[in-house]
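[SOLVED] Need 3D model of a two-part complex

Original post:
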Amino acid sequence: MMPDDELTLLELTDRLLNRGVVISGEAVVSVGGVDLIYLGLNVVLTAVENLRTPRERETAPTRDHNPA
Amino acid sequence: MSTLVYLYAVVSQPLADTPMGIDDQPIRWVVANGLAAAVSDVSAKDFEEEPLNAHVKDMAWLGPRAVAHQEVNARLFESSAAILPLAFGTVFRDDDRVRQLLTEQSQQFAARIAKVRGCAEWVVALHLLREPSPEDVVADSPMLQSLRSQIAESSPGRAHLLQRQMATLTRDEARRIQADAVAHVLHALRAIGVDVYQEPLPSDAVERPLLRASVLLARDAEARFMDEMDRLRRRWPEPTYRLLLTGPWPPYRFGGLPDDA
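Solution:
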């Protein structure tokens, strides 16, 4: 298993990015008639490896209730 | 520097005392139609679609900004009864466009705020850590247990035949038991959650879980939820299974932009 902080950041990026709508071509997409740039997200899960940031542990929103 | 407007979350009214946003920019509020959007300025150089999609593959770039995004939303989540947190990378040209979104989507936003009020989001994943041994499978399968006693009572020739049948059936039963575990956990989550969303599973993940689900859960049901998780862990125990839980999250899955956005 991954160390907890890696798991946490992976969960974080997954949570924040998973709703992305993939767009192509135009720099701006329209959401409900409003111009909005939305992130194309299918790239992310494969890129989330070995990521560390110095702040992540104290900012971690997650609690892993697994005793392991 | 040319800037864009980065949207973190929509709440009912502006809140004081927010942490700094992405790249240490202060949080501002755009207010319209009884809704308040928490925004900050970001540089167009980084947050236009093309550079943003390139940056997001770079975890050294993404990591601290994802953390900043979550820090803002975590604070708003703590200090308000309902928050609609947006996904990372929700960027507008200017405040007017944000105001326009609040105005045009005000009914959907209001409905979503009502739905997530008093709730947090949890992520539950059920992993299969190792293939269960044939003995484990038999222990979980009345059908195989009965076949085994049949074998014990049979003549050597018939026992051999049944033995081979047993091997095939054990593999099938192992699959069935896994499907049962998923169904059982999902059922338990649906019984306790306000809403449950079964996440699509990435096909190429190294540790692909059997199940991954987001659960919208009332804050006052959390103690009961923990008890339920303990019960599920006893039913589907390690070292074969592992039930992982993270939360409480702001409701990113259940509170974000309307589905039809």
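Edit: The CA atoms of residues 26 and 36 of chain A lie 11 Å apart.
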